[in-house]
Amino acid sequence: MPSHSAGSRATARRRERARVRLVRAGVATVASIALGLGLLTAIPAVAAASTRGIFSDTLAPSIAADTDREAVELGVKFAPDSNGTVTALQYYQGSKARGVTTATLWSASGAALAKVSFAASTKEGWRTVSLTKPVALTAGQTYVVSYFAPSGGYPVTENDLVTARSQNGFSLGRGAGVYTYGASALPKNTYKGSNYLVDVVYAPSTSAIPAPSPTPTQTAPTQPRPTPTASPRPTATPTPTPTPTPTPTPTPKPTPTPTATPTPTPSPTTPPAPPAGSTSGAGWTVNSNTVGLAPLGLKCASLPVYTGSSKVPAGSVLSGVRITGGLDLSAGNITIDKSCIQPVSAARGMPVLSTQNTSNFQIAPAKVTISNSEFDGSLLSKEDAAWATAFIGIADLVSNYVHGFGSGLAIMNAGSSLDARVERNYVTGLVAWGDGATNGTHSDAFTIRDFTDAQRSDRQLVVLNNRFNSNSGNDTGALFIQTYAGRIDNVLVQGNLLEGQGYQLGLNEFYEPYSNMRAVDNRFTGTGWGAAYVQGGKGWDQWTDNYIYSSGGTDGRGAAVRKP
Q1: Can you tell me the distance from the alpha carbon of 508 to that of 44, in angstroms, rounded to the nearest whole number?
Q2: pTM (2 d.p.)
Q3: Which of 75, 79, 339, 482 lies most in the core, judged by the most C-beta atoms within 10 Å?
Q4: What is the DSSP track for 370-387?
Q5: pLDDT tens across 479-519, in order?
Q6: What is the largest CA-CA distance in the chain?
Q7: Where are the alpha helices (H) located in 26-123, listed in sequence order?
């Protein structure tokens, strides 16, 4: 990776300080013109100070260009240790990150404090984008600086921001590297300490500084990056985080450190019996009248609106209510039953229900159960619905009807201790937005992205008697298993009807390995790209009695599906 020499760093630093003095000398003129146009507020006086940044000038990415090509906002969340002003925004331009023309400084609540536009470039290295109006920051307050990569291909440093730390006069929390898919917006998601190499030029001040106010887009030239003090490298440890709607394409996260692989449980030679407590009826007997609220004689419109906290306390039982917004179920020991999850708004790329807290990344330590309920995305706009996932996390999901979202159910950010049962759910009616080959959404009816047995070798994930249909037009498939967020172990897929486009059943070794995967007595429509595929890894440990679905065949059996 190219890096700046000591001479170029010194030159860049002198040039940046000279530019800062020039901007301050012209404050009165610039501010008076801007105020006349109703665009900018007056600039507070600040004491002269040298500038600094969060990261070392020599920091270069471990991955020069991620293979992901989806539109994504990438940034870092930080808090300055002292009052001061941001005079420029910085990011590392990758050779494959094409069309990058905007960078933004955000408040923690998502107000754009500064947004600059500039000419695109493919010259690799740090770019400094000057602000025509410095932005005042308050010590101890959280901010985000980011840039928008409309075609992906961004650089990233792996496992760099895993733990909280202070450096160069800034505080960084765990998982300070943040991103969000789709149009440019405040990035909130994080994944295992990714550093997307975004920074600020900061001039500390001892003066009292008023709170910043949102400002419109500015246009400014770019300059070489000045030299902050070098920063230490932390030891990488995985940090689970929520993610955007799952997709089969590589996404803006680094390769996690592999976990030691336990010896897989030997595959049985005959189909295992359904686990104790299972409901009756295979997936091909499931429809919208047999799961969710309908068999109970209930409808979403007839249920009272839930008025409790969006961060649900441990021990809560939510029964017979209509939930109209997102819920944080990370406290664990929570039951949702006979309820309607019908959001009226949804954050792009985020789940409606999640068992991981998006601030401290806590994963539910005790069982969450969602049963006999309906997830209904019909009150969302098509675009908002397409970018939403009904559920992401670790839970027992039983007899639910899910429809009207971009993706349905996801076992992801699953921790390392809890078992999970996904049984007799019906996911259908998924929706898409945009071009799935470029910047649009991807749909999975059900997906598994991590489920490790590293802590408990007997840990089990059972996917039983469900009906999963992915037919949005931008489809990965009905049931997609990919080691995207961590390794996956001990999964039984049995008695399911898998329908729609894409592949009905996919098994993909992506970042980490998988083990002890069993597919027994499932039915496929064989539409789209076909019934099943395996990409990477050793494949299915057991593949028994899997058939194309035939309504006239005995037990729905048509032609046998060969082991992929």
Answers
A1: 55
A2: 0.57
A3: 75
A4: EES-EEE-TTS-HHHHHT
A5: 999 998 899 999 999 999 999 999 999 999 988 999 999 99
A6: 85
A7: 27-36
